[in-house]
Amino acid sequence: MFRARRSVLYMPGANERALEKAKTLEADSLILDLEDSVAPDAKAEARAKVAAAVKAGGFGRRELVIRINGLDTPWGVEDLKMAAEVNPDAILVPKVARPGDIVNVSKIHVGMGGTEKTRMWAMMETPMAIFNVREIASVHQVARLSCFVLGTNDLLKESRALATGGRFAILPWLSMTLLAARAYGLDVIDGVYNDFRDEQGFRAECEQGRTLGMDGKTLIHPGQIAACNEMFSPAPEEVAWAHKIIDAFTLPENAAKGVITVDGKMVERLHLAMAERVAAIAEAIS
Fold it and tell me: Strand, coil or helix: what is 188?
C-alpha cells in the first residue's frame, strides 16, 4: 500500500495528553518519541504510555512510528522489546552510522517476536551516517529499511556548520542522502524547522525540500501540519496532468510505445512513472 508521508510529527512519548490529541491531527505519520524529547528519569514511564497508546489504537490512517533509544543506552533494549510487542508501522532507529546499526536492530526486533511487517526507519544525523549513506541504503531488504529521516539539527551541531543562507552548508548532505535513498527505493523525510511561529520561513524550507525531492518533512508542532500538507501535496493541475498521461498510455494504440504526444507535448514512459506517483499521492490523501 502506498503511503503519503508529507507531514511527520514528533510526539513526546511521556505526554499522555499529546498522544491522545495526535488521534485528531491531520499528520500523515506520527513519531512517538522515546529518545530526545524524554528525560532520563521519564524513559520507563514514556515507554509504558507509548505502548498503551499503540495498543489502544484509534489513530486511523495515520502511520505510527516509535523512535527508540539507541541499543547502546540503558533504555534501548527495553524500548525495542516493547515495540516488538505492540507492532507499530515502523521503528525509527537513532544515530545510525553504519549498515550494521540498522541490520542489528531489525534482526533483534524479529528475535524478540516482532512482526516483519514493521519497517525500519533510520535517523541520518551524524557525519558518519552521511559518509556511509549508500552502504546503509543498500541493506534495505535484509533490514526492512524503508525510510531515511534527516536529523538536521544534529548534523549542524556535529559539523559546526551554520543554519543560515537557506541551509546552504548542508545542502550537499541532503542531496547525498536523497540520491542514495532513491537508488534503493527509499523515502526521505526532511529535518525539522525550529521556529514553529515563522510560517513564511517554514513554507520556504518546505519548498526547498520538495524541490530537492523530499517526500515530506518532520515537524515539532501541530501548527505546522496544515502548511506542510499543502506544500508537499500535488497541485490540482499537477494531478489532472498526471491522469492525462496515465489515460493516454492506457490506450491500446499506445500500449507498446515509449514516447507519445499528450496535448502537444512529448511524453515518455519515465513521465508515466512520475505521473503514477502523483496520482498515488493524490489518492492516498483524498
Answer: strand
Strands 63-67 and 259-262: unpaired
Question: Contact 35/232 with Cβ under 8 angstroms?
Answer: no
d(C-alpha 227, C-alpha 205), whole Å: 11
Q: What is the pLDDT of residue 284?
A: 87
Of 268, 245, 71, 166, nearest in space to 91 by CA? 71
Angle between helices 43-56 and 76-86 (to 10 degrees): 10
The Cα 95–Cα 154 span in angstroms is: 9
pTM exceeding the 0.85 threshold for the entire prediction: yes
Ranges of the chain with pLDDT below 50:
none
Q: For position 163, what pLDDT does the model report? A: 83
| Predicted local distance difference test score (pLDDT) of residue 221 | 97
Measured distance CA(188)–CA(176) in Å, rounded: 11
| Burial readout 147-164 (b: 16 or more C-beta within 10 A, e: otherwise) | bbbbbbebbbeeeeeebe
Report the distance separating Cα 69 and Cα 38, nearest Å. 10
DSSP 8-state class, residue 33: E
Residue 274 φ/ψ, nearest 5 degrees: -65, -40
Considering only CA atoms, which of 193, 216, 213 is closest in space to residue 204? 193
* Rounded-to-integer distance, Cα 191 and Cα 130, Å: 14
CB atoms within 10 A of CB 251: 10
Write out the three cell numbers for 205.
524550507
